[in-house]
């Protein structure tokens, strides 16, 4: 009835009718401009739709939590309909999503020539404009070389290995038999304590370490939230936590500056070395430390939890791992040594297979954020300049044409892969190209040290059902509750 009345009003007034027609024409032209304009210029855009919600497009279904050993329903459906390369509107931008391994490697290798790292504004605001995730170009290279020299192989051998082992023993020794606890929380504690020690010489007994960890939790919750800065939102809380975290790091920075000015030896950590050896500004140093703390602890703790999760479901792998580590320990006892060294680590052949398989099936980082900085053509498709580009790096790990029976936790597959030198860098978990994760070897070392002590001391079982979920950060919804028993 109301519609009929409206129609009669419009038809009886020519001016209103003309206004209606013009408005409709403007809407049609505007919609065509938004959705189809690129299609006029770029003939071969990948298939897909730039629809969804205003501004955010299909971000919500794309980010919906799902099993980490899958690509999620949204991506699976898109691949079934359009193939491995498709267009969609995400994070406010027209975006090309790629689940195609060869395009993904091409994107990562062409960093700064054709594509550029480009995280959504919300993530950048929380991490800081000087964080390594947000930086590109010369300043990124400068920050990266600081991170690289800090985690160089030499340091891993000399300093880190014994620290990591000590921390692993300390964490594991505190576990009690038959009492349920969150293995993911313990893994976070392990990786966090190591990171704050390397970065700022902080330890567990300091009250500011506990405060840093507490603030860090709400900081992380905001990373995957919708960036709405209103009271009560996870995003607002994360921004507030960022300020508290920066204050704690800032206090440590003041100590290092004072030590340097007074000519004192001081601590041997990254913060002290940046103060002594670089001319970075205060806000740059704070964001650098914050970003390495984030990159270096969330990921390796997830990797350790994943190993605990996968091994409890594969007794054969656990048994073989235990035999490898018992053999190493027995040899050390015969030599009268107690602590592990680099040579022992090099002997952990099957452990490396377990680590790779854990990273493959666990998919700690599902996708990366890039944008095209030139018009690019790939296999006949146009990727327009300034469009978002999302390489789903986990797609390669779950591709049955690359990994037979990809849903199966099968560490033995790596005995063949790792014997082929050219395939040694096959795993995509650490990205690739000029932004390849500088902490990859450190993360593997942390996993190996913890596994060495864990498998020799305990059997374990899930106390409650749980599984790894891409949130998009890797999470265990129940915290991976386990019970341990001495072997
Ligand atoms: C299993 C554990 C880890 C995984 C799966 C992982 C994964 C990644 C990935 C995928 C990237 C690339 C991001 C991009 O290209 O946009 C990255 C970058 C980075 N990671 Fe890791 N990471 C791990 C452990 C670590 C550790 C232990 C550290 C440090 C101590 C670390 C420090 C960094 C840093 C500083 C970057 C930035 C590199 C750059 O922008 O050039 N990561 N990581």
UniProtKB/TrEMBL annotation:
Heme binds at residue 437. PROSITE patterns: CYTOCHROME_P450 (PS00086). Keywords: Heme, Iron, Lipid biosynthesis, Lipid metabolism, Membrane, Metal-binding, Monooxygenase, Oxidoreductase, Steroid biosynthesis, Transmembrane, Transmembrane helix. The chain crosses the membrane at residues 6-30. It is a single-pass membrane protein. It is found in: Membrane. Its cofactor is heme. The keyword tRNA processing does not apply. One of its GO terms (biological process) is brassinosteroid biosynthetic process. Belongs to the cytochrome P450 family. This is Cytochrome P450. It comes from Dendrobium nobile.
């Amino acid at each position: 009835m109301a519609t009929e009345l409206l129609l009669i009003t419009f038809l009886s007034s020519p001016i209103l009718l003309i206004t209606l027609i013009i408005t409709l024409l403007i809407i049609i032209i505007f919609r065509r401009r938004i959705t189809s304009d690129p299609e006029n210029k770029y003939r071969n855009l990948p298939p897909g739709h730039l629809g969804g919600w205003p501004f955010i497009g299909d971000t919500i279904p794309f980010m919906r939590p799902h099993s980490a050993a899958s690509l999620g329903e949204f991506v699976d459906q898109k691949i079934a309909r359009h193939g491995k390369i498709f267009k969609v509107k995400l994070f406010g931008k027209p975006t090309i999503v790629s689940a195609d391994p060869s395009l993904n490697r091409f994107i990562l290798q062409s960093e700064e020539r054709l594509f550029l790292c480009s995280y959504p504004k919300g993530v950048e605001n929380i991490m800081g404009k000087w964080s390594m995730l947000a930086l590109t170009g010369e300043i990124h290279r400068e920050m990266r070389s600081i991170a690289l020299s800090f985690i160089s192989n030499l340091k891993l051998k000399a300093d880190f290995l014994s620290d990591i082992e000590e921390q692993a023993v300390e964490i594991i020794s505190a576990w009690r038999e038959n009492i349920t606890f969150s293995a993911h929380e313990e893994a976070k504690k392990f990786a966090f304590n190591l990171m704050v020690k390397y970065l700022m010489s902080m330890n567990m007994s300091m009250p500011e370490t506990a405060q840093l960890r507490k603030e860090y939790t709400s900081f992380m919750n905001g990373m995957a939230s919708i960036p709405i800065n209103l009271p009560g939102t996870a995003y607002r809380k994360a921004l507030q936590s960022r300020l508290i975290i920066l204050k704690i790091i800032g206090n440590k920075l003041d100590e290092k500056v004072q030590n340097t000015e007074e000519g004192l030896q001081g601590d041997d950590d990254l913060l002290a070395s940046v103060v002594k050896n670089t001319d970075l500004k205060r806000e740059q140093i704070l964001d650098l430390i914050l970003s390495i703390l984030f990159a270096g602890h969330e990921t390796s703790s997830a990797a350790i939890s994943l190993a605990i999760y996968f091994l409890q479901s594969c007794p054969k792998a656990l048994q073989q791992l235990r035999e490898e580590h018992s053999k190493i320990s027995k040899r050390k006892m015969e030599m009268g040594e107690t602590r592990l060294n680099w040579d022992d680590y090099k002997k952990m052949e099957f452990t490396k297979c377990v680590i790779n398989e854990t990273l493959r099936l666990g998919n700690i980082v599902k996708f990366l954020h890039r944008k095209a900085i030139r018009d690019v053509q790939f296999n006949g498709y146009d990727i327009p300049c300034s469009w978002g580009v999302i390489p789903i790096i986990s797609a390669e790990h779950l591709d049955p044409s690359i990994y037979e029976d990809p849903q199966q936790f099968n560490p033995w597959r790596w005995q063949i892969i790792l014997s082929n030198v050219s395939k040694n860098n096959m795993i995509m978990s650490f990205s690739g190209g000029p932004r390849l994760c500088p902490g990859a070897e450190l993360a593997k070392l942390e996993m190996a040290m913890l596994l060495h002590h864990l498998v020799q001391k305990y059997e374990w079982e899930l106390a409650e059902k749980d599984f790894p979920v891409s949130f998009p950060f890797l999470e265990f919804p129940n915290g991976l509750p386990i019970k341990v028993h001495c072997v």
